[in-house]
Every structure is written in structure tokens, then in C-alpha cells.
Amino acid sequence: MQQELTQEGSNGEVQSKYRPRSRASARPGLGLALFSVGLGLAELFAPAGVAGLIGLPNSSRSRLVLRALGARELLSGVGLLIRPNSPRWLWSRVGGDAMDLALLGDCLTSKRATRTRLIAASAAVVGVTAIDALSAARRTRSLSREKIAEGIHVRRTITINRAPSEVYEFWREFQNLPKFMAHLESVEEANGVSTWTAKGPAGTSFSWQAEVVSDRPGVCIAWRSVDGSTSVPNRGTVNFAPAPGNRGTEVRVELDYEPPGGAVGAAFAKLFGEEPGQQIQSDLRRLKQVLETGEVLYSDASLHRGMHPGRPSKSDAKALKGAAE
After folding, report:
1. What is the DSSP letter of 9?
2. 187-206 pLDDT, tens per residue?
3. DSSP reduced 3-state for 311
4. N or C: which end of the chain has fewer CB within 10 A?
5. How far apart are CA 1 and CA 274, in angstroms?
């Protein structure tokens, strides 16, 4: 079965807007950036002085190693100056601190080293490592909260080899949605309002009510969550258009979620993972399979977790043989 998937907007990736970064959130990154640049320049251009200051022997090997560490430190500093709120550059400093500690620990066994200065330098690096790790962890959590607070907008398109009316009728029966939407457990419709139940983390579930705001048979369906029925307001639109070249239907889906912060937002983020658009893309592929083949096709790896034999067991082989007969 051939699948055709077209992604829209920034190559079909999740489109979300982020709030401007505040000066307060940038201060730790800028401070660490200036520290990295200063230390990197000192190690690059005055390695002998740095070696004497921290108790290393003033040898050609020590100077060479310090220059290499200085280049790494300078790179991290410049990266943080350009992007002071980037967790990636903050974590790179943590990795560099680990390298510094390993070097200092190795030099403690050297007879030419000044042990008191090495121990003092190691203690200072441990303190800096703690600051770097704390700043990186805080920024990572903060960035995740900002993404959740700004909401999620997903847009995906797929071509299905069925008539627009057929695809529309299948989707309009909201009870069919859990057949291809992995995060849904059930959808029940009564008196113009549908109740959606989704899977939550750790075996939990949560429900909300939705209402149809636009219904054009064979063309478009739009819905939104009923006010007050959920802590995660959401809305969606699906358009059905004839695909070019008489290839069936082009299904265009657009979904918006507005998860809050706190525990509810964290649970919602865990439900959809890092790439909500990827999950919606997988849902559309399952829809294509259901409409074109009548079932969702699973790979062997998705049916068996962990290591498993490449051929069926004797009991499975007998069952398959009996079914064939």
C-alpha cells in the first residue's frame, strides 16, 4: 500500500509561538557566558599562567591540554552569548566541567603538581559545575512550561484513495475516531454534544464535551470543546477535497490545544510527547489504512515487545495451520 503524506507550514512541523524571553531569564546564561569567554581566553593565550594558578606543572603537555580546554570553553561562551537561554549550551558547560574535573583528578597523582592548589581548583570547579547543572535544569523545565503555556497548533494533510463523501461519512461518525486516533478511548454523541474520553498517563483517562460548529457534508467538519467541560480547551477542523489526478481525497486536519501549566499541563504534554504533530501524522496513516484496507496494519515489532523469535512458536504454528484448513 502506497502512502502519500504532505506536511504543511514549516515542513508540517508543529507551529507554536513563544513569548519573548525576559531579561531576568537571560541573566544566568549571560553571566555564565561571560565567565566562559574570560576563562577560555585565559587558557588559550596564557596557559602557563593558568597552569601555575591551579597547580599544574608548566609543561608543554599541560599547556596543550589547557589550550584545548580553552577553545571548548570559548565555544560554549560564544554560544551562550548568542543564545543565553539555550539549554543545549548550558548543558555543554556541564559536560566541559566534567572534563575539567577529570583532568584535575588525573593530575593529583603527578609529583610535579601542587596538590593544595589542585584541590582548591577542583573544589571551585565542583561549585561551578553545580551552578551550571542547576541553571541548565531550570532552563530546560522553564522552556517546557513555556511551550505548554503557549498552546499547540498542529496541521497535517494526507491523501486517501477513497471518495470525499466516504471519508467524510466515516469521520462524521465520531465513534469511529478511536479506531485510528491512538490517544482516544471513546467518543459518544448525544443531543448534538459529543463526549470525548482520552487516555492519560499511568492508566488514567480524562473526558470533555465537544460541539460541532461547522458541518458541510463531504467538505468540512469543525468542532470545539464546550466551555467549562475541560481544563484543556481544544478545537479542530478537517477538510475533505478531491485529490489531484483523481487519486481520492486530500484530508487536511488542523488541531489546536491550549493546555494550562501545572500538573494538568504536564500530564497533557506527557500524553502527546515531544512531537504532537508526529502523533497526529500516525493517526492519519491509520485512518488511511482503515479506509483503504479495512484494518490497521501493525509491524511485528509493534505486536511483540522486547526480544522475540523470528518464527512462530509451535503452538502458534498449529493455530495458524488450523485456521488455514
Report:
1. S
2. 999 888 999 998 876 677 88
3. coil
4. C
5. 29
